[in-house]
Automatic annotation (TrEMBL):
<dbReference type="GO" id="GO:0004180">
    <property type="term" value="F:carboxypeptidase activity"/>
</dbReference>
<dbReference type="Pfam" id="PF18027">
    <property type="entry name" value="Pepdidase_M14_N"/>
</dbReference>
<keyword id="KW-0378">Hydrolase</keyword>
<keyword id="KW-0121">Carboxypeptidase</keyword>
<keyword id="KW-0645">Protease</keyword>
<feature type="transmembrane region" description="Helical">
    <location>
        <begin position="198"/>
        <end position="223"/>
    </location>
</feature>
<dbReference type="InterPro" id="IPR040626">
    <property type="entry name" value="Pepdidase_M14_N"/>
</dbReference>
<keyword id="KW-0812">Transmembrane</keyword>
<dbReference type="InterPro" id="IPR050821">
    <property type="entry name" value="Cytosolic_carboxypeptidase"/>
</dbReference>
<keyword id="KW-0472">Membrane</keyword>
<keyword id="KW-1133">Transmembrane helix</keyword>
<protein>
    <submittedName>
        <fullName>ATP/GTP binding protein-like 4</fullName>
    </submittedName>
</protein>
<feature type="domain" description="Cytosolic carboxypeptidase N-terminal">
    <location>
        <begin position="37"/>
        <end position="123"/>
    </location>
</feature>
Length: 242
């Protein structure tokens, strides 16, 4: 059983092409039997409960090394029916204060409309729910308009590991003499983490030239892996006399 407070029995895997049907249904899949998938980069969705044809309770997975933190969600849905209206309830947020209370709304895109757009704030509700231990729940309403599209919903605009690596690779291709890159270690999911040293020559009052190293560690923080392990070098000097 899933523990909404994020205990030891919390879910550890994302849903993978999960078709949610009415309880007891044994017939062939139909349009409108929504298929949920969070096995995507930066994805997070651990469980889906069928409430009705129009409503689903969604449980997000906690951080890997701190089960009390449950904020990020990112998932896709498909096999929808045109004009199908749904309400998705994110039922196990760990934060009591959220920008969703002040007008922020989730983002959505689809295969035919690949640019992220915010949902209308009037369709988003953040409230204490008596059905879920009076935890805060974020509910949003949505109407699907294209049956062949795959829709993706996210807490906010995702910044994926691949996008970060693409940007860092573009910096390396410029062969900047004041930029150095060094691998510090691996995350708990074996993604590389790098330190980028940006140097600038400064002149002291005494006339001694000093090189200042600004160390910027670009960490890709998976929503389920905020904690990480370093293997190898863990100390970086920030000043060097010449």
């Amino acid at each position: 059983m899933y523990n909404e407070m994020g205990g030891e029995d919390a879910l550890v895997g994302n849903v993978n092409k999960l078709m949610v049907t009415p309880p007891g249904y044994t017939g062939p899949p139909k349009k409108g039997h929504i298929v949920f998938d969070a096995c995507i980069e930066s994805g997070n969705l651990g469980r889906v409960d069928y409430i009705s044809e129009f409503e689903f309770d969604l449980f997000i997975r906690p951080d890997t090394c701190n089960p009390r933190f449950r904020v990020w969600f990112n998932f896709t849905v498909e096999n929808v029916r045109e004009t199908q209206r749904v309400i998705f309830n994110i039922v196990n947020f760990s934060k009591t204060k959220s920008l969703y209370r002040d007008g922020m709304s989730p983002v959505v895109k689809s295969t035919s409309r690949p640019k992220w757009q915010r949902l209308p704030a009037k369709n988003v509700y953040y409230y204490r729910c008596p059905d879920h231990r009076r935890n805060y729940v974020m509910s949003f309403a949505f109407c699907f308009d294209r049956e062949d599209d795959v829709y993706q919903f996210s807490y906010c605009y995702p910044y994926t590991y691949s996008r970060l690596q693409h940007y860092l690779a573009s910096l390396e291709r410029r062969n900047l003499d004041y930029l150095q890159r060094e691998q510090l270690g691996l995350s708990v999911v074996s993604y590389c983490m790098f330190a980028h040293c940006v140097t600038a020559h400064l002149c002291c009052v005494s006339g001694v030239s000093v090189t200042f190293y600004y160390v910027s560690i670009f960490l890709y923080l998976l929503c389920t892996a905020h904690s990480f392990s370093l293997r190898g070098r863990t100390h970086v000097s920030v000043f060097k006399d010449e």
